[in-house]
Amino acid sequence: MTLELTHFGLTNVPFTKEIADDDLWLPPSKVAVVDQLVEELSARQSVLLTGEPGVGKTCVLRALRRRLPEAGFRLTYCHNATLGRRDFYRQICLALGLNPKATAAAVFYEVTKHVEQLATEQRHPIFLLDEAHLLHQDVLDHLHILCNYEWDSRSLLSLLLVGLPELRERLARRHQRSLYSRIQHRIQIDSTAPEDTAEYLRHRLRLVGAADREIFTSDAIAILHEAAGGLRDLDRLAEAAMRDAGRRKKRLVERDAVMRVADADR
């Protein structure tokens, strides 16, 4: 049992990444991003979603997965962006439950035929390419062809490219204009606001039995917000500060505890 559980009387570790989709919390700004994604993908558009590490891209994607009705969509998640073109399409084949063939042309054919079959079933496929800033150049060079059906007259597939801000810079180059012109919407996720940080901490603590009391002082929350580059950093620093306060038998996590762990984290 961890120190923060015993000292603060919690039922579970508060800032673990192992949290159910139903327990996710998003600030209004990110709820709006999910709403926009649902709207654009429902219109069979392709989307570019970028943001700095830890700002909540994965939380947005998990919320999107919950919002999209399975009856009308086929969401395929591809997280290994470091593959060459043939292996990239083999990965998509496996994710779709298809049998990948030996040659690059055969694998590509399997994917496109499956997309066309989904259209006859009134299910719109979405290929979610995470960490897309790491995509090989030969994959990027070919993606616009994957979106081309019936002489480019029908939108049978949506791409959702997710990555760091440099992905937008790569796609904006003249060499990528064929792909970039097919991505109708570009969304940037911004950092969390100070009030969102406070509410996020309260939400995570409520889930583990601290619904009726404050554990972090307002000064501690303000320093946490400044020290954390995103939610991932916030989780790590908040948990470390709780351990620090627990070791010192403090009833609250105060600013000095946060400053100590933040200084040690630099």
Short recap of the structure:
The protein is of the alpha/beta class and 266 residues long.
Shape: elongated
Please give the alpha-carbon distance between the first and last residues. 27 Å
Task: Supply Rg.
Answer: 22 Å
Topology order in helix (H) and strand (E) letters = HHEHEHHEHEHHEHHHH
Assign the CATH class of the largest domain.
Answer: Alpha Beta
Q: Stretches where pLDDT falls below 50 for ≥5 residues?
A: none
Count of helical regions: 12
Strand ordering within the main sheet: 2-3-4-1-5
Any overview of this molecule?
By secondary structure, the protein is α/β, with parallel strands linked by helices. The protein folds into 2 domains: 161 residues, P-loop containing nucleotide triphosphate hydrolases (Rossmann fold, 3-Layer(aba) Sandwich), CATH 3.40.50.300; 74 residues, Helicase, Ruva Protein, domain 3 (Orthogonal Bundle). Helices cover 50% and strands 10% of the residues. Strands 2-3-4-1-5 form a 5-stranded parallel beta sheet, sandwiched between helices. α6 links the parallel β3 and β4. α4 packs parallel to α5 and α9 crosses α10. The longest helix is centred in the middle third of the chain and has 17 residues. The model has no long low-confidence stretch (mean pLDDT 92).
